[in-house]
Amino acid sequence: MNKYKSVFLVLMLLFLPLIICAVGEKNAYAQTAFPTLPPVLLQMIRDDTVHQDLGISESQIQEIRGVLVDVDGPWFRARIQPAKEQQEIINAMTTQLQTRLKTILTPEQQTRLTQLQRQALGSRMVLRNDLRDTLEISDSQLTEFVESFKETDKRSNELQQSLSKGELTADEVQKELGELQANERQSFVDVLTTKQRSSIGALTGKPFSFASVQRTYPLAPELVDDGVTWIQGTPVKLADLRGKVVALHFYAFQCINCRRNLPHYSAWHTDYADKGLVVIGIQRPETSTERDISAVRAAAKKEGIEYPVLMDLESSNWDAWGNTMWPTVYLIDKKGFIRRWWQGEMNWQGTEGEKDMRQSVEQLLGS
Fold first, then answer.
1. If the chain, 367 residues long, is cut into consecutive pieces of 10 residues, what is the mean pLDDT of each piece?
2. 19 has which bridge partners?
3. Beta bridge partners of 309
4. Which residues pair with residue 109 across a beta bridge?
5. Which of 180, 212, 244 is the last residue of a domain?
6. CA end-to-end span of the chain, whole Å?
7. How many domains does the chain have?
């Protein structure tokens, strides 16, 4: 991932917009504006290194995957919703996952998973009810924490804007972001009492390296048949492609940015099909001409597309993926999880997006 993308992702994942704390908080905190916590349980529960740390069995992993089939679709589609609705969906999916995990994991595994969630949140673990209660965090301490978090979020949003406008380089943003995080951690420690600080270790457990976590995105939504016509290749299901890496892209054949991406997808197909890559195109029409099956077929032939392509006339797959623009390409790993995606023309105005995505394809094929 290039530096611009990586910094932007860090900003988006770690410093989310502020919302009012959820119903169910104690009255003492009911009017406190809390920073939204990232969905760390949803993110981490699918990763191999987390599974290894928890010591869960293969049968438990399969049970967890069954739960993810139910929660991942709504969670993934929530990304395009307004902040309030998005958070409601995330909260609901997290609760559903937590409930099911209680029947899958042993008590010891559940305890360790709670420790990992606290570690993943860093200083913001103090916004969790269970930790506040255990540490006996006072109202005045909570106020100091929240004000510190708000300042971090405010500045991180400013950095995001400066990065997007080209006012700061990715290295400059990364450096200041690191300083912000360090200052927030120090502020957190300074506000805690000696007794509270001495309790943190037992509440978080053995340190875990989150740098080793690779899989944090949802399972790829299965392809939908409603309103679909396969205009090229044999119809496929993503579930039948386990063990393969999949590059799935949405396009409209008259879209100029889409057309500029098409040779890249064809090159991936040529270079990596024999190594385990499957490219799938989804033509979701924007214009009336793009609803003409014969025109779509002719355009695919003209562009030299040799991989499977389906026509998504009723936008059933577009909606299932919560897709919002043409072109967009998603990379799916060998276990069926989304690993990254790119919206727009990959080499727009000199951006080396194709090179970046190609490297990701190679990494996934080699893993």
1. 39 34 31 74 98 98 98 97 94 97 98 97 94 95 93 92 86 92 93 96 96 96 95 95 99 97 98 98 97 97 97 98 98 98 93 94 96
2. 34
3. 232, 281
4. none
5. 212
6. 16
7. 2
